[in-house]
Amino acid sequence: MTDTDTRDRVIAQGVLLAALEKKMDGMDAKVTAMHELLLQGKGVARAGRWVGPLVSALIAFAVSQLGGFISFPR
Q: How far apart are the C-alpha atoms of 1 and 32, rounded to whole Å?
């Protein structure tokens, strides 16, 4: 390998690193924005914790009631 090959490879890696840093900065900005939105909706998220179990309980109740009306073959 010659010095020019090594130099070209180092330059290429520098360009790739610069592009990666730019991409990471963009991702950091997006994550920061999403974090701020989550902090704003903290009260909504607290109420949202109960929605999943409540809906699951209602579905389970409805299915258990339907089981009495549907006859299953033996």
A: 45
Average pLDDT over residues 29-38: 86
What local confidence, expressed as pLDDT, does residue 46 receive? 67
Q: Which residues does 45 contact at the CB level (< 8 Å), separation at least 6? A: 38
Separation CA 38–CA 36 (nearest Å): 5
Residue 37 Cα distances to 40, 45, 52, angstroms: 5, 11, 21
Residue 38 in tokens: 């989550």
More confident residue, 12 or 67: 12
Rounded Cα–Cα distance for residues 45 and 57 (Å): 19
